[in-house]
Structure formats: structure tokens, C-alpha cells
Design a protein that fits this description.
six-stranded mixed β-sheet, 193 residues, alpha+beta, tt1808, chain A, three-stranded antiparallel β-sheet
Length: 193
């Protein structure tokens, strides 16, 4: 199944509450919404891609727990961004200050906050150009660091606000966190091929 984009009069008028309800009624789907209120329905990822994103999340979660300065989130977490899109990165991290500023109700919805750090992992069916545009949107909405990892092409793209994209070739490397996630090290060699 390829990505389906619903862009009609009905879906474009869904309120945040109605979109949240729509997602809750379709929990087995991977659903996002862009800033134009178009609903994006994606197929589940392959087993290999799930392993890649799972390993990346495990490393981020382990670091986050030991660091204690923020909260980590997996790929099933939706965030309502300032441009009103709702995205779910494969792994993300928010500082304790940002998390604690949210209301309890916000924490039980698609929280209206942009993660400080996001990681997207390209799966077999993902368009690289679309993911690169999405990385720019993360930065435009407030992420301080965003990594796009393409295991199939063995290439990582590191996005920083107001800097050129840094490209790292090879999966025998370690990506070093900076800014909000200083001290985080992602060992790409642990991704299974």
C-alpha cells in the first residue's frame, strides 16, 4: 500500500478534536495531517524498517532515561505543531521544561508542542524528497535538531536551524547529539541489514 492523501472539503474542515477522534477510531493506521489539513494515511512499515526504527528508539530511550533531562517518544506519538500539522516522528525527545509546560489534557492528546529533537527513518516505501521536506518542516516548527536516517542507502542527514544539512555516509558511524541532546550517541552499526 502506498501513502494515501485525503484532501477533500470534509477532511479539510476537521477540528483538532475531530481529527483526534478520527485517529482514535483508526488506531491500526499510521495517520498524520499536514498544515493544509490534508490527512495522510501510510501503510505499516516492513519488518526490517520496524527493526531499524525500534533500535534507534531504544538507543534514544536508554540515553534519555540515564540523562533525566527530558522525555522520549516512539513512532506512535503525534504532536500538533505550530503550523497546525500533526506529525509522528519515528523517535523524538522533549526537554522536561517543555513537557512540564503542557497541561494534563494536552499530554493526553496530540500535544501542542514541537519536539526539541526528532529522528525520521526512511522505510522502503518512503520518498526521500518528501522526507527531506518534512525535516525542513520540523525545523520551521521549532525542532532544534532533526536527523533523517536512510538505512537502505546507508546515509544520514543531520538538520540544524540556519545551517546546511550535514550528510554522513555509511552505517559504521556514530551520530553525535548536540544542543538539546548533547551527549546522545547513536550507533548506526547496530542497525540490522
Amino acid at each position: 500500500m502506498e501513502t494515501i492523501v485525503l484532501k477533500d472539503e470534509f477532511t479539510s474542515r476537521l477540528t483538532d478534536e475531530q481529527f483526534f477522534w478520527f485517529c482514535q477510531q483508526n488506531k491500526d493506521q499510521r495517520i498524520e495531517r499536514n498544515s493544509n489539513h490534508e490527512i495522510i494515511i501510510m501503510s505499516p512499515v516492513t519488518s526490517r524498517s520496524g527493526n531499524h526504527s525500534g533500535e534507534i528508539f531504544r538507543q534514544l530511550a536508554n540515553w534519555s532515561v540515564s540523562n533525566g533531562k527530558g522525555i522520549h517518544f516512539d513512532s506512535s506519538t503525534g504532536f500538533t505543531l505550530p503550523d497546525k500539522s500533526v506529525f509522528s516522528p519515528d523517535a523524538s525527545w522533549i526537554s522536561n521544561d517543555s513537557w512540564n509546560a503542557l497541561t494534563e489534557e494536552d499530554k493526553d492528546r496530540f500535544a501542542p508542542v514541537c519536539p526539541d529533537f526528532v529522528i525520521e527513518v526512511r522505510s522502503k516505501t518512503d520518498s526521500l524528497d518528501d522526507l527531506k521536506m518534512k525535516m525542513e518542516l520540523w525545523l520551521q516548527n521549532g525542532s532544534q535538531l532533526a536527523w533523517l536516517i536512510d538505512p537502505r542507502e546507508k546515509t544520514s542527514y543531520l538538520y540544524h536551524p540556519k545551517k546546511s544539512v550535514e550528510i554522513i555516509k555509511g552505517l559504521d558511524k556514530k551520530l553525535i547529539g548536540e544542543g538539546p541532546v548533547s551527549g546522545f550517541v547513536l550507533d548506526l552499526s547496530l542497525l540490522r541489514f
